[in-house]
Amino acid sequence: MAHFTEKEYGIMKSLGRIALGIMLCGWAVMPCLAQNKPANRPPVIKHEPVATAVRGQSISVRAVATDDSGTIKSVTLFYTASRDAAPFKIAMQSAGAGSYFGAIPSSLLKGVTELSYYIEALDEQEAASETPWYTVKLQVPVALPAQTPAQASSAAPATGDGRPRRPTTDS
């Protein structure tokens, strides 16, 4: 029985792995060995959902997207007034440090009582992740109370261009 040094045993062990790789993968060892690299995980999206908004005003949406590769290719905001219809989409803009911002335009928010949206992030290797759908309740804008005649008369009289007059001093 042959006795090997620890170094010789290590070399033989490595050669055995290479031989096994050739037997299992044929001569294309490199693609087979490449299969052992860690899988690319999809980006992680952190987002505080918008719960309510004012009908007729745009809705700002913020998210933080990070990825194990360090590079986010895109972050997209999908939104719709009816989940039965295909959503609109808008590219969210990077604000640095993984923060992204997007706005749902006010033109879509007229005459609806709620809106649904979700966010998708894509990394450089095309791995994608999505948030769940979120629903935003749209509230009717609060009207300012009308001025009473007494309140209106107590305001400083206006000049011809609508600006209040400056008080004059009689010296």
What can be said about this structure in brief?
With 171 residues, the chain is an alpha+beta fold. It contains three helices and ten strands.
Describe what you observe in this structure.
With 171 residues, the protein is α+β, with helices and mostly antiparallel strands. It contains three helices and ten strands. Strands 2, 4, 5, 8, 9 and 10 form a six-stranded mixed sheet that branches. Strands 1-3-7-6 form a four-stranded antiparallel sheet, with no helix packed on it. Strand 8 (114-123) and strand 9 form a beta hairpin. The N and C termini lie far apart (123 Å).
- In sequence order, what are the helices and strands, one letter per element? HHEEEEEEEEEEH
State the low-pLDDT regions, or none: none
The number of helical runs is 3
The rough form would be described as elongated
Largest β-sheet summary: 6 strands, mixed
What is the CA-atom radius of gyration, in angstroms?
32 Å
Going by helix content, strand content and strand pairing, the class is: alpha+beta
Helix content: 10-25%
Average pLDDT metric = 80
List how many beta strands DSSP finds. Answer: 10
Distance between the termini: 123 Å
How much of the sequence lies in strands comes to: 25-35%
SSE layout and pairing:
Blueprint lengths: L5 H20 L3 H6 L9 E3 L5 E3 L4 E8 L5 E9 L7 E4 L1 E4 L2 E6 L9 E10 L4 E3 L3 E6 L9 H6 L17
